[in-house]
């Protein structure tokens, strides 16, 4: 029997939405409760953990002072907030996020509504399970208090006073059009949080910098649509140099504004490491940047050790002075010998999307994962799990001792620095 999802609709539900019936047809059993007065809202929020999703009209959000009401229950509320607006409203998804909303929808856009409801209901389930993980972190002796991790949200974009909107889109391109879009300033950077998964580590606000391309209509094109063409044309070095320069400026602004623990992970292509001039330019920029030690982690593919060893050696020299880090991705779970051989120069390794999928469908072994993590930790290398998009992975990653997680279940990439941070709490309770 499927668990009924509880949706709180703050504002009488518009008849045309038909949320319950439409979601039920998609296999989600939901129960919708309406609240349109301060008294009915206060009654609904008496048990915050009851709700799996909150829908709210933009006007009702202000009239009922919903931000303050939800803030009072933040420690027990796992449900996402979705705001509805009229087509004429100027409320953007970024502004809504700053208000605490997971998304902003135009009233009447049924397809978008159903997609967001499905996504956020899954996200709520993941947050509930992550909250529950603190029980498995407890020692056998319930009197032995130990710090554990709970998920929270911090909007770091206030340091930059930036505004952004995001519309994912993918289509076929050719090199000439990609070049034209880049020349017209179409490159866009987004940032996806990398969230610490262990309470015993010093917290840093970590993000991977991701490049996108905006087309003539303002739609955002994902890397798979244009980076292969960029690489084929031999432009990756210049693109990586541009990304590094922009990221260094952003990071300096963040750290000078008070967020000294902000860390950016930056990808460097093998093609970039084969260019001595580009590497020298990147090294000069990093050396001149006024950053806290360890603020930059360069991500490279495993193949760079074979295809560009001289460039890798030069990169390591650039990192050493400011004690910045090196991450290797595309490793397999049986690459224990690789970690043992190169552990002295690594600070991080990242587990691939394929490994995450394998853990879910049984193609990857939990034993192999734990052996891999132990080998990395023995070399003082931290392990990050990529593409953590579902709650079913949480117990496996937690048991293996993964250091940090990255994926859409906590946050999709944003042009602003939206960080699902951690809160370390003390607990000796085995149940809520």
UniProtKB/TrEMBL annotation:
Stored InterPro entries: Cyclic-di-GMP_PDE-like (IPR050706), EAL_dom (IPR001633), EAL_sf (IPR035919)
Domain of life: Bacteria
Molecular functions per Gene Ontology: cyclic-guanylate-specific phosphodiesterase activity
Record-linked SMART domains: EAL (SM00052)
Residue span, EAL domain: 171-427
SUPFAM superfamilies: EAL domain-like
Database matches in PANTHER family: CYCLIC DI-GMP PHOSPHODIESTERASE PDED-RELATED, CYCLIC DI-GMP PHOSPHODIESTERASE PDEF
Protein name: EAL domain-containing protein
């Amino acid at each position: 029997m499927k668990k009924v999802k509880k949706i709180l609709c703050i504002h009488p539900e518009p008849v045309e939405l038909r949320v319950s019936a439409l979601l039920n047809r998609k296999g989600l059993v939901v129960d919708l409760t309406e609240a349109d007065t301060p008294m009915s809202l206060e009654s609904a929020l008496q048990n915050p953990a009851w709700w799996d999703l909150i829908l709210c009209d933009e006007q009702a959000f202000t009239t009922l002072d919903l931000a303050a009401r939800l803030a009072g229950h933040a420690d027990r509320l796992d449900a996402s907030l979705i705001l509805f607006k009229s087509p004429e409203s100027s409320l953007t998804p970024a502004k809504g996020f700053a208000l605490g909303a997971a998304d902003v929808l135009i009233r009447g856009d049924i397809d978008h509504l159903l997609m967001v409801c499905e996504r956020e209901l899954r996200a709520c389930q993941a947050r509930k399970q992550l909250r529950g993980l603190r029980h498995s972190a407890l020692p056998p002796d319930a009197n032995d208090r130990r710090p554990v991790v709970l998920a929270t949200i911090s909007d770091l974009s206030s340091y930059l006073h930036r505004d952004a909107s995001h519309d994912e889109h993918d289509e076929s391109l050719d090199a000439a059009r990609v070049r034209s879009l880049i020349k017209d300033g179409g490159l866009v950077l987004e940032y996806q949080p990398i969230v610490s998964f262990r309470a015993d580590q010093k917290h840093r606000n970590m993000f991977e910098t991701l490049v996108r391309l905006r087309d003539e209509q303002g739609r955002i094109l994902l890397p798979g649509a244009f980076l292969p063409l960029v690489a084929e044309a031999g432009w990756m070095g210049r693109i990586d140099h541009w990304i590094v320069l922009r990221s260094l400026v952003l990071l300096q602004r963040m750290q000078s504004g008070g967020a000294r623990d902000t860390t950016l992970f930056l990808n460097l292509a093998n093609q970039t490491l084969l260019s001595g001039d580009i590497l020298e330019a990147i090294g000069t920029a990093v050396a001149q940047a006024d950053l806290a030690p360890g603020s930059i982690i360069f991500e490279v593919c495993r193949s760079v050790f074979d295809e560009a060893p001289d460039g890798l050696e030069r990169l390591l020299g650039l990192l050493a002075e400011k004690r910045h880090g090196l991450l290797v991705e595309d490793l397999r779970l049986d690459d224990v010998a690789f970690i043992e051989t190169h552990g002295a120069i690594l600070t991080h390794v990242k587990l691939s999307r394929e490994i995450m999928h394998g853990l879910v469908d049984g193609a990857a072994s939990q034993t192999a994962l734990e052996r891999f993590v132990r080998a990395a930790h023995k070399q003082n290398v931290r392990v990050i799990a990529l593409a953590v998009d579902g709650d079913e992975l949480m117990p496996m990653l937690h048991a293996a001792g993964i250091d940090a997680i990255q994926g859409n279940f906590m946050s999709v990439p944003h042009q602003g620095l939206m960080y699902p941070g951690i809160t370390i709490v003390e607990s000796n309770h085995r149940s809520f």
